[in-house]
């Protein structure tokens, strides 16, 4: 879960133990992932664990077909950079995404663009 949300496993563990709460942006992602309200997540009232859709849960690294790469949950209007070499993932502004695509094309790097429709 932490990897898919771009947070350390220690943060997820702290949430599970009631030591800490997710930040507002992460909480918004969690409400979308689980299809429930923030109150249900934070207080447990009315919460049920859904089956996670594979369309966002994993990607395939073509260099190693057995490796699965977790993708961030889709958030309308957000653009994510996911690095296969470092497993880093971060939300980036549109201008930065365009510059990243231009650099990658110039350097001959492989780029995947995934659009949820």
**Strand percent estimate:** 5-15%
Please count the helical segments: 6
Structural class: alpha+beta
Main pleated-sheet profile: 2 strands, antiparallel
Q: What overall geometry do the principal axes of the alpha carbons give?
A: elongated
- Number of E-state strands: 4
Description:
The protein has 117 residues and is of the alpha+beta class. The chain folds into two domains: 2-43, no CATH class; 57-106, no CATH class. The protein contains six helices and four strands; from the N terminus they run αααααββββα. The protein has helices spanning 2-5, 9-16, 24-34, 38-43, 54-57, 94-106, and strands at residues 59-61, 64-69, 79-82, 89-92. The strands form two sheets. The chain has a two-stranded antiparallel ribbon.
């Amino acid at each position: 879960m932490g990897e898919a949300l771009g947070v350390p496993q220690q943060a997820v563990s702290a949430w599970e133990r009631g030591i800490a709460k997710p930040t507002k942006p992460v909480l918004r992602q969690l409400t979308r992932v689980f299809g429930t309200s923030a109150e249900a997540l934070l207080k447990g009232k009315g919460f049920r664990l859904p089956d996670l859709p594979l369309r966002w849960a994993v990607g395939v690294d073509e260099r190693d077909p057995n490796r699965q790469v977790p993708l961030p949950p889709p958030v309308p209007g957000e653009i994510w950079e996911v690095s296969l070499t470092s497993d880093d993932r971060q939300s980036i502004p549109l201008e930065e995404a365009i510059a990243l695509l231009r650099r990658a094309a110039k350097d001959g790097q492989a780029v995947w663009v995934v659009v949820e429709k």
